[in-house]
Task: structure prediction
Amino acid sequence: MSLSVVILAAGKGTRMKSQKPKVLHTISGKPMLFHIIDEALKLSKDVTVVLSHQFEQIKSEIEKSYTNIKIHKQDTQNFPGTGGALKGLQLSSKRALILNGDMPLITQESLEQLANSTAPIAMTILNLKDPSGYGRVVIKDGSVEEIVEQKDCTQEQLAIQSVNGGVYAIDRELLDKFIPQINNNNAQKEYYLTDIIKIAKKNSINIEPIIVDAKDFMGVNSKLDLANAEAIMQERIKNRLMLKGVIMRNPQSIYIDCRATFIGETILENGVTIEGACEIDNSHIKAYSVVEESKIANSSIGPMSHIRPQSTILNSHIGNFVEVKKSTLNDVKAGHLSYLGDSTIESGTNIGAGVITCNYDGKAKYQTKIGKNVFIGSDSQLVAPVTLEDNTIVAAGTTVTENVPSGALAISRVKQKIVNSFFYKFFKK
Ligand code: UD1
Ligand code: MG
Result:
């Protein structure tokens, strides 16, 4: 059946206590709203996001990532609340699936339970030990009577543990009929979408309650909720990857961005962070290394290395305390304490301990090109822009300021002096 999906994201998100729009806070690297949009797009091509508070900012973020999302502006001045969000919204399908924009853990599968319902209205129910913050669902003789928001609850209602999941499937015809009937006679003086349940009941419309997994439908209202949702999302991501063949030592200590992809038998040691859309293929990332938006294949990284965005590291060994940025390395060894930025380094090259590419002069960034079979001695600085051709040697402690032609040695050192017995004179008592 054709389905229009509506995602409500126009609220102030007051409880988030943040300058940043609530729905743009990220879970595993992706804005909450985008997690929801991505799942919604698996069910329907017709997805509308309702915005108002911080309208321009959220709209422009959506437009940067999606071309096929409709945006509806809510008149929050006159019609605040989740019910106000749907005022004036024209939907093209006969059935609407309405989602809150603050439930980043929903999945296509969990939404399908609702989408497949043929009842005129289907709503989600979570059974929670601690129902605080959610709307309580009043059920009489097995049928849903109404949803009462926490702020409007009687003492008795506060104890109800069946709460509203905040996702509804509803015939568009009923939505068009009931939305204008919602009023704002409640503690928050808002138009509550949840009131359509009460109105439907009055009209003898059948409401199907669908009990769903509370983890999938968790609403994120505060930064505490955000951290709890993040923990669940991380567990999902890591479980999926381990079942696909990734080995993780102490997975609880590892963070992986939802956009990262893994191929083959990669090993991630404890404390590893994988940020952004990394692609990691058959590699060993050792303890406490951080990899950001980079491609790594058949390589070992760390412990305690930092691979910054736009790096490609193939068939290489990167040791401890090495920072790589926007560089391409293939069949390279950089074992200890280096900074390799804006560089390309080719096959058979060895980077000694403490080698630094001096890529920045305070104004602009410059490239360092290092060819094949280059041996760079420890504690050398390569002042960019500079090229070291194939089969060259840089002596330890050299500052390279000029290109090194193929086959050559570059050495820049002050000649060593020996002053005999100086120690005894200097420390004479
Ligand atoms: C809402 C439900 C509550 C349910 C809970 C589930 C209402 C009145 N209450 O409460 O029954 O248990 O979700 O998580 O619906 N929004 C708008 N326009 C507005 C106000 C809010 O689009 O004027 C959006 C928000 O951006 C948010 C969503 O609607 O994404 C839900 O709003 P929120 O304030 O988080 O509602 P809850 O109090 O969590
Ligand atoms: Mg909420």
Q: What stands out?
A: DSSP finds eight helices and 38 strands in the chain.
